[in-house]
Design brief:
heterodimer, B: mainly alpha, Multiheme cytochrome fold, 11 helices
């Protein structure tokens, strides 16, 4: 009897797993997961050089130019050829934030901190594409409280 | 000293091969010698240029495994390997001058690379990576000295329409390229191969 119950339970588990797989197909598109359709071509990156608004103050600014072929390795960091402090005059690019000069215990260093070296971990270029899933993000300014100035004491 | 020179000259004069070389021919006609010499010259020149061109192909370059598995492998995937218009740059397009005199000069320099191949200066990946900065500096210096001639064989500043470039590229070319303040290689390093350790290179952090 217990064996029969175990069999039933495992059968139910297989069914549940099957329905979960059907759910996940909504993300992968109409093609069944057993087939491998050719990858869609990569969309061209946004390269109008216009700075984008940040959705919240701590958001890493996104990259409004192409970065294809820019080497970020142990040998070289191409981003820093324009965004380092000493090159911003000739490149007219925004300087890396001062937070990037601090190591993880808060010591301010003379230049880019090692933990900030891999730029594309946080900063990414953009492309005109339709998002695969919806996004319910609401800007803080749209939450109703419009006037954020401190009230003066009468 | 004078006696030694006189002795040497006497030996040359007494040499039977020298006597044959400087005495007029007895059996061969003037027409045979002039036309034959001309044809031999054509054959020699043709063979010379054929071999020169054969050593100026990508197939020849990557016949050495040092080139095939390091720089050639790195070229794949860059814009000079595949792009929307299908124009490809091969090794000699960038690394051998197209003009004859400079080409011969570069070919003579390249004989050192044969030496390096025979004695295995970069016959492992580790040796190649260790020497990469030195190799790259050679190429940067060469392109800096000839004002990036090999780039300009295809990319002409006169034909460059900066209104069709991204604003960032247009501004940089207008400010640095057109007045001649910088040359191509000053900014465009590492576009076809991976970079060496760039510590201390001008323009790199």
């Amino acid at each position: 009897m217990t064996r029969f119950a175990a069999l039933l339970a495992s059968f139910a588990l297989v069914l549940a797993a099957g329905s979960a797989a059907q759910d996940s197909s909504r993300l992968t598109g109409p093609t069944p997961f057993t087939q491998a359709p050719p990858a869609a071509p990569l969309p061209p990156p946004v390269k109008d050089d216009l700075r984008r608004q940040r959705n919240y103050p701590e958001q890493p600014p996104v990259i409004p130019h192409a970065i294809e072929g820019y080497e970020i390795s142990i040998n070289a960091n191409k981003c820093m050829s324009c965004h380092a402090r000493k090159f911003t005059e000739q490149s007219q690019a925004p300087m890396i934030s001062v937070t990037h000069y601090q190591d993880r215990v808060g010591n301010t260093l003379g230049g880019l901190a090692p933990r900030r070296y891999a730029c594309t971990t946080c900063h990414v270029s953009q492309a005109q594409v339709t998002p695969l899933v919806g996004n319910g993000f609401v800007d803080m300014d749209d939450l109703g409280e419009t006037d954020r100035r401190p009230r003066r004491q009468p | 000293m004078r006696a030694a020179v006189a002795r040497g000259l006497a030996w040359v004069r007494a040499n039977p091969w020298f006597r044959i070389a400087v005495s007029p021919p007895r059996a061969l006609s003037l027409a045979f010698l002039t036309l034959g010499g001309f044809l031999a010259g054509v054959a020699f020149w043709g063979a010379f240029n054929t071999v020169l061109e054969a050593t100026n192909t990508e197939r020849f370059c990557i016949s050495c495994h040092e080139m095939q598995s390091n720089v050639y492998a790195e070229l794949k995937g860059t814009i000079h390997w595949a792009n929307r218009s299908g124009v490809r740059a091969t090794c000699p397009d960038c690394h051998v001058p197209h003009e004859w005199t400079s080409k011969i000069a570069r070919k003579m320099q390249a004989s050192k690379e044969v030496w390096g191949h025979l004695f295995g200066r970069i016959d492992t990946r580790e040796k190649f990576v260790a020497l990469r900065r030195h190799l790259a500096e050679n190429e940067w210096a060469r392109m800096k000295a000839n004002n990036s001639l090999e780039c300009r064989n295809c990319h002409s500043a006169d034909s460059m329409d900066i209104t069709r470039q991204a604003p960032r590229a247009a501004a940089a070319h207008e400010r640095f390229l057109f007045p001649g303040e910088r040359t191509c290689i000053d900014c465009h390093k590492g576009i076809a191969h991976r970079l060496p350790d760039m510590a201390g290179v001008e323009g790199w952090n």
